[in-house]
Amino acid sequence: MDIWTVMNIIGLLSFAVVGSFKAIREGLDLFGITVLGTMTALGGGITRDLLVNNIPNALKTTTDITFALFGVVLAIVLYQIFKGEFKNKYFILIPDAIGLAAFTTTGALIAYSSDVSFFGIIILATLTGIGGGIISDILLGKIPTVLKDDFYASCSIIGAIAFYLSIQIGINVGSSAFICSVVVLTIRIFAIIYEWKLPRFN
Predict the structure, then answer these.
(1) Whole-number Å distance between alpha carbons of 105 and 44
(2) Is 170 left (phi over 0), alpha (psi -120 to 50) or beta?
(3) Ramachandran assignment for 173, one of left (phi > 0), alpha (psi -120 to 50 degrees), beta (any other)
């Protein structure tokens, strides 16, 4: 199993859980939970694949949707077990950080294999990381969180730059992908703990 497959599975499960948790918190029914969970898991990757002129992987195989649906079921089970902890912000933010790291890495890997520019790697990696979350917020009728009050997309951008620089200094692709995921996850965890935010101008 290659690094892309591993990161993709981690991202699918993590974001499906996050999207499902959002839906449960908003009081959606089982169908709504399933839609929001799967779209959070699949949205970024589908958008990325379309931009590099590929048929989305989610439409070519049953694997992506299967893992996304498994993530939805997992979220429902976890909610039933840990319902008392559900209002704790870390209950959603930690799996979301894991998903962000995993999907930023898959985006960087796809971008690298598609022979795009430095900026192309940053854009595709970031879009893969944040795309599903943006779609889920829009479905819930909210301004996407990534656009207004969180140090989130910045983590993907920094991770993508770390991936590119690692490749440029001769580190192999697998190790560069690992560096990318660690950078994104570490920065995002620090951002959550210390409540980092970008400047706002009112």
Answers:
(1) 12
(2) left
(3) alpha
Residues 96/156, Cβ–Cβ less than 8 Å: no
Does this model's pTM top 0.85? My answer is: yes
Residues 161/131, Cβ–Cβ less than 8 Å: no
For the chain, how far is it from start to end, CA to CA, in angstroms? Answer: 49
From residue 127, give the alpha-carbon distance in Å to each of 35, 110, 137: 20, 12, 15
How many other C-beta atoms are found inside a 10 Å radius of the C-beta of residue 73? Answer: 15
Q: How far is CA 7 from CA 18, 105, 128, 199, in A?
A: 16, 7, 12, 31
pLDDT tens readout for residues 62-91: 999 999 999 999 999 999 998 877 777 788
Question: Can you list the alpha helix ranges (DSSP code H) found in the chain?
Answer: 3-25, 30-51, 57-60, 63-81, 90-113, 118-139, 153-168, 173-194
Please tell me the distance from the alpha carbon of residue 137 to that of residue 23, in angstroms, as a whole number: 10
pLDDT digits (tens, 9 = 90+) for 24-49: 999 999 999 999 999 999 999 999 99
For the chain, the structural domain boundaries read: 3-194
Single-letter amino acid, residue 140: L
What letter does residue 202 receive in the DSSP assignment?
Answer: -
Taking the C-alpha atoms of residue 27 and residue 151, their distance in angstroms, rounded to an integer, is 27
